[in-house]
Amino acid sequence: MAKSFLQNGGLAAGRSTTRSITSRLTSVYSDVQNIRIDYDLPLPSVLRNPFKVVDGPRSTAAGHPEEIEKLFPNLFGQPSVMLVPCDSDSVLPDKKLKIGVVLSGGQAPGGHNVISGIFDYLQQRAKGSTLYGFRGGPAGIMKCKYVELNSDYIYPYRNQGGFDMICSGRDKIETPEQFKQAEDTVQKLDLDGLLVIGGDDSNTNACLLAEHFRNKNIKTLVMGCPKTIDGDLKCKEVPTSFGFDTACKIYSEMIGNVMVDARSSGKYYHFVRLMGRAASHITLECALQTHPNITIIGEEVAVKKQTLKDVTDYIVDIICKRAEANYNYGVILIPEGLIDFIPEAQKLIAELNEILANETVDEDGLWKKKLTDQSLKLFEFLPRSIQEQLMLERDPHGNVQVAKIETEKMLIQMVDAELEKRKKEGSYKREFKGQSHFFGYEGRCGLPTNFDAMYCYALGYGAGALLHSGKTGLISSVGNLSAPVEEWTVGGTALTSMMDVERRRGKFKPVIKKAMVELEGPPYKKFASMRDEWALKNRYTCPGPIQFSGPGSNAVNHTLRLELGVV
Amino acid sequence: MAKSFLQNGGLAAGRSTTRSITSRLTSVYSDVQNIRIDYDLPLPSVLRNPFKVVDGPRSTAAGHPEEIEKLFPNLFGQPSVMLVPCDSDSVLPDKKLKIGVVLSGGQAPGGHNVISGIFDYLQQRAKGSTLYGFRGGPAGIMKCKYVELNSDYIYPYRNQGGFDMICSGRDKIETPEQFKQAEDTVQKLDLDGLLVIGGDDSNTNACLLAEHFRNKNIKTLVMGCPKTIDGDLKCKEVPTSFGFDTACKIYSEMIGNVMVDARSSGKYYHFVRLMGRAASHITLECALQTHPNITIIGEEVAVKKQTLKDVTDYIVDIICKRAEANYNYGVILIPEGLIDFIPEAQKLIAELNEILANETVDEDGLWKKKLTDQSLKLFEFLPRSIQEQLMLERDPHGNVQVAKIETEKMLIQMVDAELEKRKKEGSYKREFKGQSHFFGYEGRCGLPTNFDAMYCYALGYGAGALLHSGKTGLISSVGNLSAPVEEWTVGGTALTSMMDVERRRGKFKPVIKKAMVELEGPPYKKFASMRDEWALKNRYTCPGPIQFSGPGSNAVNHTLRLELGVV
């Protein structure tokens, strides 16, 4: 509007200012970054007033409790806890704490807010405390590489995307030597607590550390925090992992744009592969946000034991039906991990790994005789470029790199071939043009949505409270998310209660099971009830760019809302 | 903030409402779409008050005026015009107009606003007028496929992305038969005017139609409107083409996110190919917005007659220098049309087109002897996958499809090979991991920024005024863009004044020359003065998602600001 344009000084206002926040390396902050830095985060009321920590009932495990108990003799059975209001401010010890924090694994929007949350807790509730940030992920703990975080250091990262405040890494603390290194570090720094911000593996690791320290009578408490854009780290008490909301909205903005493009030009099928390999939550959420014509959900493919041919036929059938309705365009969402959900593809890859490790691949293709009939049939069905990818792109162990397979391009080629067949049969008469997209990295480091910013801040602030109250082996959990922030609950969930075991090399390993898309859950059911309509009618929704103020700016993703029973 | 969250009804507000705007097909509008529909657009004051149309001096042509005069005997030399305030409201005839509008070529954010602009003009200033929308681009004119646009029809498209209100197409009105068809249509509909919204080709076409109608004494006036995200249709009087601002900001959002990702994980070089084949304006603007480590500008490559090896070495040198500074990551921007700017690549492609049209390609590679030494050397330098693409991916005429070459992947492979070489020589010691991205379709149909929304509305409204005042052969031009909207100037520029001729098949053809990146222009010079610093220091800016309200939401792109002399 003219008014705000004028108020804004017209064009001269520029989009990116030259105000430089020097402590964030050498960045030049944009207007939006600057606005976000000073965005004032609300806290749940329980965190704004005196509280006490109340234990719940004794917990058990997600599976094989007897094995989990053996693995965590000190921690097993400990209750989850809740923060509840109380009269006095003196419930928690008046003591200066030394706390370490680490970011583990892939980036997720909001990580910086978890850190600013725990920092602000310490500043406000345990004055004189020290917060160390371990650099570069768990390796930073093992190598004792850290930085002391203060107000000036943290300021430029407030409400900003990325993990670059202290960076992250994918190392794991696994071997006895590595546990010893971690032990040395926490003792050297005299740490009262350690906050591990990570996914399922990292939180499992956090729990192992907590058990180890408890067992060795080391005072350092360990707390976890649920991070992953994939959305597959959640349970009843941990309604969602942070970053999922932002990433899905960034992808949905792009998908919505591509939909409008498809409808405007009327000649392309856009095949969009979305990050999230183990579970299809991102794909499902983006479908709920944008209403594409076709969406492939890995978990459904697995349950129905579909083959690649089944998936191709499903897509082709809809394309043909749309052609009859004179729609020669559309948008198709595909989860990054599709191949992992297709039993026959897994079998083929296993056989290829075996054969290629032991045989030379002759030009005449005699090596193919080593494949089972089913795998040979699938291999021959694949487009040539994918065959080559399977043969050539191998990791250092000689294994096929499934993640590198451009599934969206593979499907375009298979769909094209099938449509050509149907053209010859006379059941399809149009020209098919596929356009491939992969939306991944651009969603991991975006500026967190208001929801992720607030949720993470509460997770971090709450984690501070839990460490302050002497808890260990919990994951920070913020609940009642369908209510206003004011009314959100804050507590900690026993990590052992989220665990099961897997047998690896003859040994039981504790794991936090990934939360897969539930075919009986509300988000999938909502999607399943709509998809036939979306397939043939164009119910496209264009969410547009994430807004930080105004209507809708505080709304959260459909998955969480549906799971919380909010219509 | 808690307050707006509460006001908003908390989570229940949802992100996409079920309020369905039925006339936009079957879409379900998101909150942001709904807010944008009712966004009230300001008009330049000259359009809000009585105005008259004032002629400027006689015009000439951008080149070869004598040839342009021969091609446009009726229009050549006509002045550009300006709207200026006047006392009386009765300057323009009180008459009901019949106007047609058409969208031509690729989508650009803001097209719908041009249409709503001219619609509102007719509603407010020539009451009782009729606006027809030709469907599917120029083919809609030739086939007389149209829809009558009314308030209800237009409403859901206000401030929305895409061209789906009437859709677009790439057909051209070229042959005498096609001109006759257009003639029949405008006469059948008794059109007083036609507004052609398109790029350089479409505006040239608009001018040919204007000349044709004038020559045949047909009353239909023809007006052009500057559309293209590529930003290569502009001149002094037409400061920018619409859509460029939005597309660049969408790409810059993604680039900014990828930068934060690169810095957080510290292990990837992201190679980002950006749409915009003929000119590198988009790449340059995105560089100015985000400050990547490396940016390739096609026009510079062409002027310096760089080879692919030169470009590769330039990238590799910076990667090595960054490695010395312990930065093993970065972001690299590449224009989609890079190959077109490299003389040796053009030569190779021409030779391949020739050879492959006439020779069989033998497996032993004897055909390669037909290549000149220079081309053979380049061919052998290319990664195998690109060699295959050059050999196999051909259009229906047998020509190499340059647009399909994934330049970013090609460069990753060439950079990787060169770095391996330097590793052996000992001058590089790190691991190189390239990640490829192509940002294209997601930028063409986004919700227009405030600037594009306002600019397009003024362009359309102004076009209505020009047609009303009896002008033809002009392109709608809105100027003084560095001032508040209030003070923007509105007028029309003689299309012939933007033209030169090209010799094709022995004949002179009129063309509006594409505006390339000027190596002496302020945007490039600003970039050139900064790039060495950006290469080695990380001056990343993360513009974040486009905001429609608040600070910065009305700011425009750097290219336009620098060209207008706004610091």
From TrEMBL, chains A, B:
GO terms for biological process: fructose 6-phosphate metabolic process; photosynthesis; response to glucose. Pfam families: PFK. Coiled coil: none annotated. It catalyses: beta-D-fructose 6-phosphate + diphosphate = beta-D-fructose 1,6-bisphosphate + phosphate + H(+). Allosterically activated by fructose 2,6-bisphosphate. It is found in: Cytoplasm. Mg(2+) binds at residue 200. Keywords: Allosteric enzyme, Cytoplasm, Glycolysis, Kinase, Magnesium, Metal-binding, Transferase. Its EC number is 2.7.1.90. HAMAP family: Phosphofructokinase_II_Long. Tetramer of two alpha (regulatory) and two beta (catalytic) chains. NCBIfam families: PFKA_PPi, PRK07085.1. Catalytic subunit of pyrophosphate--fructose 6-phosphate 1-phosphotransferase. Catalyzes the phosphorylation of D-fructose 6-phosphate, the first committing step of glycolysis. Uses inorganic phosphate (PPi) as phosphoryl donor instead of ATP like common ATP-dependent phosphofructokinases (ATP-PFKs), which renders the reaction reversible, and can thus function both in glycolysis and gluconeogenesis. This is Pyrophosphate--fructose 6-phosphate 1-phosphotransferase subunit beta. It comes from Acacia crassicarpa. The gene is PFP-BETA.
